[in-house]
Specification:
mainly beta; globular
């Protein structure tokens, strides 16, 4: 998965650096069947969602986490490109990934189909927000699909990002189709679970010790209306199949990617907007 993800990050960087913010040969919903990639994890955790603003609605989920007052924006999507906002030492691009058995839009980058992953215009807007990331798909039978971005990496490389000053992640989300899967895993990788961290063994298979991709995660509950989802780092958990299974907390000083993931056999359709850290 790391090689495929790195290839997509390089492609996203190349397209953005070249000024590409539109895709040729795809409609506005990026219809295409293609995909590859991989990681392994399962459901768990819980979600904390506050009352929604903008387009309106209320979020579902447990917890009494107050909505952050002054979030540190990672990407608000308003610039219309695949890059996250270059601020706070962050550098990265959005990508899609899946197990290759179903259909996902936007598709996974390949040499045969070098497309970019750009925000979609919101109709109607969510308050002052006019764009959001949108992915939808179905038919995955192995481990599923998702989208995400690196916090400090491009041009085929990833480096750790120090998020120790923050308490968690916050974003807005809603379903694109009211009948789609209503739960979404939010993965956060650190030095222990990410191959680039140098601790886990990317070549380790099922049942072997020191496996990679045992990411910290949280299960967010989605609805048909926009809702703000607040995820405290302290509420992230792991399955425990990977390297250092006894680790008690996310290594906030060494984060790599944030991903929004759906399991196999789930039909998904979700919009994600205004992803930020909060203190």
């Amino acid at each position: 998965m790391a090689k495929r993800r790195a290839a997509w990050m390089w492609a996203a960087w190349t397209l953005t650096a070249g000024g590409c913010t539109a895709l040729v040969g795809l409609d506005e919903r990026y219809h295409l069947v293609e995909g590859a990639g991989g990681a392994s994890s399962a459901t768990g955790g819980g979600s904390s969602a506050s009352a929604a603003g903008g387009a309106g609605g209320a979020g579902a989920g447990g917890g009494d986490v107050a909505a952050p007052i002054d979030p540190d924006m990672i990407d608000d999507m308003e610039d219309g490109d695949s890059a996250i906002t270059r601020t706070g030492g962050r550098l990265g691009h959005w990508y899609s990934y899946n197990d290759g058995t179903g259909t996902q839009s936007p598709p996974v980058y390949t040499e045969e189909m070098p497309v970019g992953f750009i925000p979609e215009a919101l109709m109607p807007p969510r308050g002052e927000s006019t764009r959001a990331m949108h992915t939808f798909g179905s038919g995955f039978t192995e481990w599923g699909a998702g989208i995400g971005f690196a916090l400090n990496g491009e041009d085929m490389q990833m480096f750790p990002y120090d998020a120790s000053a923050f308490a968690g992640i916050v974003f807005w989300a809603r379903l694109g189709d009211a009948g789609a899967e209503a739960t979404m895993k939010v993965n956060v990788s650190d030095r222990v679970s990410e191959p680039a961290g140098g601790i886990c063994d990317e070549a380790a298979g099922a049942g072997e010790p020191n496996r990679c991709f045992d990411h910290w995660f949280y299960t967010a509950h989605l609805g048909a209306e926009w809702a703000e989802v607040v995820i405290p780092f302290d509420e992230l958990t792991r399955e425990g199949f990977g390297a250092e299974p006894e680790a008690q907390a996310l290594d906030r000083a060494g984060l790599y990617v944030i991903e929004f993931r759906f399991a196999q056999d789930q039909d998904f359709d979700v919009y994600v907007d205004d992803v930020a850290f909060y203190r």
